[in-house]
Design brief:
CATH topology: Rossmann fold
Order of helices and strands: EEEHEEHEHHHEHEHEEHHEEHEE
Number of strands: 14
Number of helices: 10
Strand content: 15-25%
Shape: globular
CATH architecture: 3-Layer(aba) Sandwich
Structural class: alpha/beta
Number of domains: 1
Helix content: 25-40%
Distance between the termini: 24 Å
């Protein structure tokens, strides 16, 4: 693997929950629990897991939208999690984000020109109006958008067109690293394929690095280079995409793959996940997946496994397959 463009070390995120003012208990939601990852330059790093596993929280913490409770984040060797806004401003041009819902991520009162010019005016204020327009028209063309869209408002576009505009907004500062938070989940299936193809083409043309957050394993199989499988704020397995689909090591990864609907005997066969998610406020001791794991033993319920290498795959399991 080439040198990492971004790393996190022991990243933790805690959210204090509201309580009655007379209550002595101060409940805390454990959203991230010691997440350590390294994303190489030019790769498509996918983060997968069930809803509530901490995928979006991890992406927002990396982008500086949330302040970590503990741990560190480094971008190209420079620690960025403790920077104030002025110091982080040059970094923001290199790190951009595509949000999940294109119907909510675009300001309904701003034209496409205003939407795309705002990050340039904020991050690169020295640009003249002619150069500003030239940059915007170039990125619109690169994302398959018509230059005539510049004076239109978001309500005049379909969901797929809006997401192209959102991608153009992320690209307009010429970033090196993009966090894409489920960018196709709100789109029709045919539009999903077009958007993924667009992102792949842009990566090849511009040398982009993606952190792609999703719950759709079919997308992961065709888009990812490496995959981090998360559960209750922890990375349970981290491996190249081929290894994840060919020989998953962690029981949770195996469960996710077995839950993909398959057509067998004229009907869809699907494995149901056993049990319920543990309470992220009152985390169980030992492995967080132990209450649902069919292979759990006494050690699993007492000792929390660390992420360790098992023949090229990092697994947080005492008894990896």
């Amino acid at each position: 693997m080439s040198a990492p463009i971004l790393t996190t070390e022991g990243l933790e995120m805690r959210f204090a929950l509201p309580t009655h003012f007379l209550s002595r208990e101060k409940p805390v939601l454990h959203a991230l629990n010691g997440v350590s990852i390294a994303i190489a330059e030019g790769e498509s790093f996918c983060v997968v897991g069930e809803s509530g596993c901490g995928k979006t929280t991890l992406g927002r913490a990396i982008m500086g939208l949330l302040k970590p409770s503990a741990g560190s984040i480094h971008f190209r060797g420079q620690r960025i999690d403790g920077m104030d806004e002025a110091a982080r401003k040059p970094i923001r041009a290199q790190m951009q984000m595509v949000f999940q819902n294109p119907y909510a991520s675009l300001n309904p009162r701003r034209t496409v020109f205003d939407t795309l010019s705002e990050p340039l005016r904020h991050l690169q204020p020295g640009l003249g109006r002619a150069e500003l327009r030239e940059r915007i028209e170039a990125v619109l063309a690169a994302t398959g958008c018509d230059p005539s869209w510049l004076r239109k408002l978001p309500h005049e576009f379909s969901g797929g067109q809006r997401q192209r505009i959102a991608i153009a907004r992320a690209l307009v500062t010429n970033p090196a690293f993009i966090v894409a938070d489920e960018p196709i989940s709100a789109l029709d299936v045919s539009i999903q394929a077009q958007t993924l193809n667009l992102m792949t083409d842009l990566q090849a043309e511009r040398g982009l690095t993606y952190m792609f957050i999703t719950h759709d394993l079919s997308v992961v199989e065709h888009f990812a280079t490496r995959v981090a499988v998360m559960y209750l704020g922890r990375v349970m397995e981290l491996a190249p995409v081929e290894a994840i689909f060919r020989a998953p090591r962690h029981p949770y990864t195996q469960l996710l793959l077995s839950a993909i609907p398959r057509l067998e005997g004229g009907s869809f066969a699907q494995t149901a996940a056993p049990g319920e998610l543990p309470d992220p406020v009152n985390m169980p001791p030992g492995c967080p997946f132990a209450p649902r794991c069919p292979k759990a033993q006494a050690r699993c319920r007492a000792d929390r496994p660390d992420l360790r290498d098992v023949t090229g795959t990092a697994v947080a399991c005492h008894f990896p397959a």
